[in-house]
Amino acid sequence: MPSSAGPEPRDQQRESSPYVELDRSAWAELATQTEQPLSAEEIERIRGLGDELDLEEIEQVYLPLSRLLSMYVESAGALHGKQQEFLAQPQRERTPFVIGLAGSVAVGKSTTARVLQQMLAHWPAHPSVALVTTDGFLLPNAELERRGILHRKGFPESYDRKALLRFVVDIKSGKDEVLAPTYSHLIYDVVPDQKVTVKHPDIVIVEGLNVLQPAAIRDDGRTGLAVSDFFDFSVYVDAATTDIRQWYVERFLRLRETAFRDPASYFSKYANLSTEDAVAEARRIWAEINEPNLVQNVLPTRSRATLVLRKANDHSVRYVRLRKL
């Protein structure tokens, strides 16, 4: 016999979710319980990392987030000690705590990564925080052209996924020094023979479009390892697709007036476009490359994140969704 009961109340629906969801005001209240680790000068410097970032956003969103992450790092350290004790092994320094940070092009994930790097380094339990972007693991343009996929740059197949996986495995293996390739947004390519050295930090933030991708299925049907298998915590920066598209166009117009005017820039051909033509070109690139990548590859990984930062159309974070423990 069909049930005559109506849908569950919203509060009960939330209770049955594997996530805790806090709106902006509830999340911001957590900041009042957290001591600000940054000086006024450092806050000003961080504000300069992104046009969409202001002091209120730093204090109300990133301050409590940095404290939450710090708690996770400290807890991981305590668990490491207990595990060594249980295994009757000598106490050794634990491996770095790895944070994966994902999201669309133009959503602001790079700014989020840099802010978190600065703020986390001020908590006394983990003063050394490294930031590595996956752009350096893109295949060189020449190789993308050889494979006929230069137009799919940023899609999962455009990365040297084995090298990226090897990098994260080396980090979690506790190697004293690990090298990562360097990428130049000016020349729009990997810089040959130029590396970033990561020397056994307390925390490593790995930022990129596809860092939360699940493992690929091999030709023999077996599933390999994914980069995200080695993350201790992951963040997804989220927003409505229509808003991200608008931010992408706005960023394109800003770059047309700045970086694109450098003769060495790969995108210098766009510097002299009229505003109307620049908007049309930005929308074309978005529609043909960035939106399909977002819809097909990036957005489906959102549910794999430990925490989701959801932005409104003014770039401000409107709510936070955290996976329950």
Topology, please?
Blueprint: H1 10-15, E1 19-23, H2 24-29, H3 40-47, H4 55-86, E2 97-103, H5 109-120, E3 129-133, H6 141-147, H7 161-172, E4 178-184, E5 189-198, E6 203-207, E7 233-238, H8 241-257, H9 275-298, E8 307-311, E9 317-323
Parallel strand pairs: 2-6, 2-7, 3-6, 7-8
Antiparallel strand pairs: 1-9, 4-5, 8-9
Helix pairs in contact: 4-5, 8-9
Features:
325 residues; Rossmann fold; 38% helix; 7-stranded mixed β-sheet; two-stranded antiparallel sheet; 9 helices; single chain; alpha/beta
Q: What's the number of extended β-strand segments?
A: 9
CATH architecture: 3-Layer(aba) Sandwich
Poorly predicted ranges: 6-10
Q: What is the structural class?
A: alpha/beta
The major pleated sheet works out as:
7 strands, mixed
Structural domain count: 1
Report the CATH superfamily. Answer: P-loop containing nucleotide triphosphate hydrolases
Can you identify the CATH class?
Alpha Beta
Helix share bin:
25-40%
Annotation field: number of helices:
9
| Radius of gyration using CA atoms only | 21 Å
Strand content: 15-25%
Descriptive notes:
It is a single chain. Helices cover about 40% and strands about 20% of the residues. The protein has about 325 residues and is α/β, with parallel strands linked by helices. It has one domain: 3-Layer(aba) Sandwich (Rossmann fold), CATH 3.40.50.300. The strands form two sheets. The chain has a seven-stranded mixed beta sheet with strand order 1-9-8-7-2-6-3, with helices on both faces. A two-stranded antiparallel sheet has the order 4-5. Mean pLDDT is about 90; it is low at about 5-10.
